[in-house]
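Q: What would this complex look like in 3D?
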Amino acid sequence: RKEVEQDPGPFNVPEGATVAFNCTYSNSASQSFFWYRQDCRKEPKLLMSVYSSGNEDGRFTAQLNRASQYISLLIRDSKLSDSATYLCVVKNTGGFKTIFGAGTRLFVKA
Amino acid sequence: SQTIHQWPATLVQPVGSPLSLECTVEGTSNPNLYWYRQAAGRGLQLLFYSVGIGQISSEVPQNLSASRPQDRQFILSSKKLLLSDSGFYLCAWSPGTAYEQYFGPGTRLTVT
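A: Here is my prediction, written as structure tokens for the whole assembly.
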């Protein structure tokens, strides 16, 4: 089993749609969680950190469920500019190891 | 604000040639530094990380090496490149172990 698993997609959605991505992790001692977006042939950019209480940044909402060991990202009112690959990232307790999921590809169409 | 630089942006090298990629960070002190590789269509693989000058940890055994000669400089090297070394090399920094990482623009390496 991979340490971090994501649905590879692609997700094809129309503008204005709501889309949700899930990510599961295998190490219950994982400490920190993040969502990044990566545009084609570009570096990953931090989208948001994921806190235990859940957090929201504009149209984006991230949630963490430690009991079930999954993280989610919800994008509301999708824009064409949201088209990208979304990476789930997990950092383990006490170490520097950062594990990136393979990413979920999103296409938003007009 | 903090800035991370990587060069070159693209590189084409023959098999067996040496490699040196450089990464520098501005606007912060004593950052954690990381080197990643992303093969085409694949996820990111952590290669090396460093918590201070001269302190390098390797995640994956390979023909690559890393050095940190200065606080905000991280160098990735190879004595002899293999075809399998082709990929997108990304340098990243973070303010601490549990914190988010910020990536440089990357170097796209093609070994021919």
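A: To summarize the key features: Chain B touches chain A through 23 residues (CB under 8 Å). Residues 25 and 72 of chain B are 5 Å apart (CA to CA).
Q: Very helpful, thank you.
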